[in-house]
Amino acid sequence: MSFVADVSCCPLCQSVDCFIYSSDKRRQYWRCQQCQLIYADPAALLDAAAEISIYQQHQNDPTDQRYRAFLNKLAAPLQQRLAKTGLQGLDFGCGPGPTLSLMLAESGQQMSIYDPYFADNPQVLTQPYDFICATEVIEHFYQPAREWQLWLQLLKPGGWLGLMTKITDQVTDFANWHYKNDPTHVSFFSSKTFAYLAKRDGFTLEIIEPDVILMQKIAGNVVSNVAG
Predict the structure, then answer these.
(1) pLDDT tens track for 24-55
(2) Which of 42, 48, 99, 122 has the greatest number of beta carbons closer than 10 A?
(3) Cα–Cα distance between 75 and 162 in angstroms, integer?
(4) Separation between Cα atoms, residue 36 and residue 42, nearest integer Å
(5) How many domains are contained in the chain?
(6) How far apart are CA 194 and CA 204, in angstroms?
């Protein structure tokens, strides 16, 4: 699949059935009619240096019990659904202070981490996984179709995808929604977006909380040619 930066082409499903949805002082936002993704105008996206300078301000401390409690909103229900310990998991977009990977390793799973800025090890993107986690990550993707296709290739049939991101279902005033004010937040998902992906690509879907999403790849849904 090729990916284009055309503002009117959805960066997730590639549909051209998109329209200007909202705007603020910084940028415009578009909405896809097909998958319901809301995305920031590509002209307003930060360059890598500006993006990483913001990420370096994050205080993700593995010893912070409040941060662990936040991540446990995903870790706990995911662990309940994993068949056993000793499974191969990937914490994708782990950030400057990997913590979820430590929590899951403490629970008996075998964890790898990847982050394009803080753990850039492409080798971990060449092996299959029983589960993949991305906490407060997918809203940062400029071209979410790229990462989604990678996850499809990395995830074993029957494997789990665990996500945390604030979905737009209950947002009645997007222009004043605090979550989109972070300049590194550029892709905004709804339950309909995840339902579209689940139906298209063969997943079950559970929305555990307004910001916790679990998807299981239906056994027999195999994608070959893992990309590095």
Answers:
(1) 989 999 999 999 999 999 999 999 999 988 98
(2) 99
(3) 8
(4) 17
(5) 1
(6) 10
